[in-house]
Amino acid sequence: MKIIHYHDAPARELTSAAMRGVTGRVVIGAADGADNFCMRIIEVAPGGVIPPHRHPWEHEQFVHAGQGRVRQGDRWIHIGPGNCLFVPADTEHHVENSGSEPLIIVCLVPNSAPEL
User: What is the mean pLDDT of residues 22-28?
Assistant: First the structure.
């Protein structure tokens, strides 16, 4: 069994041409013996952006704190604490922090996906 506060996991800045203000932490993963899933914490700073992208694995997300929005097709949907999201495989998704506090998302991916 492992019990950890997410701040105790090392933060890694996530970067791409259009990504800004995003860090990720693997809190439970392969190194812990997790054979099926990886749990990571994604933090998007105020004004931060995870640009449109897609990948061949699904993931489930839980908004722990902050305010933001996700693009689904042509429309933006507000997200905040308590919201749960399911992003199917190969579905384009895009996240922005629209608030003044960090947007903190718990994200689960299958073990076939990169941990970060």
Answer: 98
